[in-house]
Fold this sequence. Notes:
Layout: E1 5-10, H1 17-30, E2 35-39, H2 45-55, H3 64-88, E3 92-96, H4 99-109, H5 114-125, E4 132-137, H6 140-149, H7 163-179, E5 184-188, H8 193-208
Helix pairs in contact: 1-8, 2-3, 3-5, 4-5, 4-7
The chain binds thymidine-5'-phosphate.
Domain Thymidylate kinase-like: 9-196
Catalytic activity: dTMP + ATP = dTDP + ADP
Function: Phosphorylation of dTMP to form dTDP in both de novo and salvage pathways of dTTP synthesis.
Amino acid sequence: MKKGLLISLEGPDGSGKSSVLEALSNFFQENKQEVITTREPGGVPIAEAIRQIILDPKNTAMDEKTELLLYIASRRQHLAERVLPALDKGETIIMDRFIDSSVAYQGFGRGLTVEEINWLNHYATDGLKPDLTLYLDLDVEVGLARIAKSQHREADRLDRESLDWHERVRQGYLTILAAEPDRLVKIDASQPLDKVIADSLAVIQERFG
Ligand code: TMP
């Protein structure tokens, strides 16, 4: 039985999730509260190996359903090996991407059937959903320009998709947000990073104290 708290961060590429995750982790540590931060795809060695395959710009031949199934496989391994045991122990986990990424990217971006993705997500997670999802919303052109400018980040296979594709992904997120307003909270990621972090913390504090 799940006893811990699961928070996911979602958003288009370049929305600043990783920086927010780091800041949240530091905040919790400074306040002597244990949190585990992790990411998808990846988080454990088998899932990180799957991540390499998915994001390798050389893998231009990858079929869309193969891509989806690799994300789902990575999700299952990460969940079974890391997330579920930690939640069972009552720990708090903050995850950089989770189930909504597959719906937004493979469903709305690639055009795969959302009902089938929901089923696969349910299969991979045994029906686990985050207690809270912070959705960092940002104009896709701004996000992609941030990635292009970043010295820490090479554009991966998905970053290299068209602007239209990234726009569909964002619309996907906005559709999920409208469908599950209790679980997802929108954060304006066009603000300065400090404000994005402050807004994210305020939502967490309001929800969980
Ligand atoms: P990241 O750059 O935020 O670590 O995520 C890697 C890429 O994988 C990003 O472009 C979003 C994409 N992605 C999907 O397309 N489907 C998924 O299910 C997940 C978890 C990520």
